[in-house]
Amino acid sequence: MREIEQIYHNNFGIAFYWKEGTEVISDKVQLVFKETGFYLTLDEMNQFCDLIEDSLTENACCEACELKNSCHKFLLKTPCSQIDLAVSIKELKSIKDLVEGSLFKIELEEYVYGVGLN
């Protein structure tokens, strides 16, 4: 089994970089959640973040519905144009946390070990 370097995780999924030997392959992020895996560039991660926000905005009409957290009627577009996911609002919020948390950690690492380095 190949080794990984974890970026971020929550109760719903995990984001990580693959490793080859001791070298971390940081040009793409592996996102795994809901028995699904995506191997995305940083631009695609940012695009996914925007698509999640769009889905949350479009489905705001369900705020008063008592089934909103368990209903699987929401389609979440992904950076892969051929793939949409059927998710509940609860799952959508967990995916949002996973993607945003991963992007935050990546940007923090880039700052601390990049421009922020004295």
Features:
alpha+beta, four-stranded antiparallel sheet, two-stranded antiparallel ribbon, 6 strands, 32% strand, elongated
**Largest sheet, strands/sense/barrel:** 4 strands, antiparallel
Total count of domains: 1
Sequence of strands across the biggest β-sheet: 1-2-3-4
Globular, elongated, flat, extended or rod-shaped: what is the shape? elongated
The portion of residues forming beta strands comes to 25-35%
Cα Rg: 16 Å
User: What is the tally of beta strands?
Assistant: 6
Low-pLDDT segments: none
Order of helices and strands: EEEEHEEH
Q: Could you report the average pLDDT, rounded to the nearest whole number?
A: 89
Treating each run of at least 4 consecutive H or I residues as one helix, how many helices? 2
Summing up helix and strand content along with how strands pair, one would put the structural category as alpha+beta
Please describe what this structure looks like.
This protein is α+β, with helices and mostly antiparallel strands and 118 residues long. The chain has one domain (4-112). The protein is built from two helices and six strands, in the order E-E-E-E-H-E-E-H. Strands 1-2-3-4 form a four-stranded antiparallel beta sheet. Strands 5-6 form a two-stranded antiparallel ribbon.
